[in-house]
Amino acid sequence: MTETPHDTLFRTLADPTRRALFERLCRDGEQTVGALTAQAGVSQPAVSKHLAVLKTAGLVADRHEGRQTHYSAQLNALAPLIDWTSKMAGFWEGRFDALENLLNRMDQ
After folding, report:
1. Separation CA 46–CA 52 (nearest Å)
2. 36: nearest Cα among 27, 52, 24
3. pTM of the predicted model, to two decimals?
4. What gap in Å lies between CA 47 and CA 65, rounded to an integer?
C-alpha cells in the first residue's frame, strides 16, 4: 500500500520528540541545531536524526550559514493533515446530525 501525505505526517508527528521540535520551531521561529538540542532533552545526534525525518516529511527546511544549520517550520506542509481533519470533522458532524434527528423522532 502506498503511503499518503497524511500517513507520512501522522507517522512523523507521532514521535513526541519530533512533535516537540516541530512545535518549538512553529512557536519560536528559526533555530539552530544547538539551540534546539539545548531544550530537547536528547543528544545532538538524536536531534539531528529527528530533524532529518521532519525535513524528509517536508515539515522543516534547513539553511546553512557557516558551520551552523538553521531550521524553520514549513507550515504549508500541514495542508494534507488539515484537509484530512476537515473531512473527518464533516463526516462526524453529519453523523451527529443524523443521530440528533433520530433521537428527536424517537421523542415524538
Report:
1. 10
2. 24
3. 0.77
4. 18
CA torsion angle 34 37 43 45 (round to 10): -50
Strand partners, 63: 70
Span 52-70, pLDDT tens digits: 999 999 999 999 999 999 9
> pLDDT for 7-51, tens place per residue?
888 899 999 999 999 999 999 999 999 999 998 888 999 999 999
Residue 40 · residue 17 · CB < 8 Å? yes
The two counts, helices (H) then strands (E), for the chain are: 5, 3
* Paired strand residues for 60: 73
